[in-house]
Amino acid sequence: MPQLNPNPWFFIMLLSWFTFLLIIQPKITTFISTNNPSNKIHTPTKTAPWTWPWT
C-alpha cells in the first residue's frame, strides 16, 4: 500500500510547514491590525419584555 510509505510525503509536509511558518506567516501578520483596548465602560442595555399578541 503506497499510503503507508511516508518517505516522500513526510518531506513534503515538513517543507510546506516551514514555508508557511518562515515565509508566508510573517507576511500575513503584518496586515493584521490588533485592536487596542479602550477604557470605555460597557453598560448592559435594558430590554423590554416582548408582548405576544395572542396572550
UniProtKB/TrEMBL annotation:
Location in or out of the cell: Mitochondrion membrane
Cellular compartments per GO CC: mitochondrial membrane; proton-transporting ATP synthase complex
Gene Ontology biological-process annotations: proton motive force-driven ATP synthesis
Gene Ontology terms for molecular function: proton transmembrane transporter activity
Topological relation to the membrane, as annotated: Single-pass membrane protein
Domain of life assignment: Eukaryota
Ranges that cross the membrane: 6-24
UniProt keyword terms in alphabetical order: ATP synthesis, CF(0), Hydrogen ion transport, Ion transport, Membrane, Mitochondrion, Transmembrane, Transmembrane helix, Transport
Family: Belongs to the ATPase protein 8 family.
The protein's name: ATP synthase complex subunit 8
Organism: Alcedo atthis (Common kingfisher)
Phylogenetic lineage: Eukaryota, Metazoa, Chordata, Craniata, Vertebrata
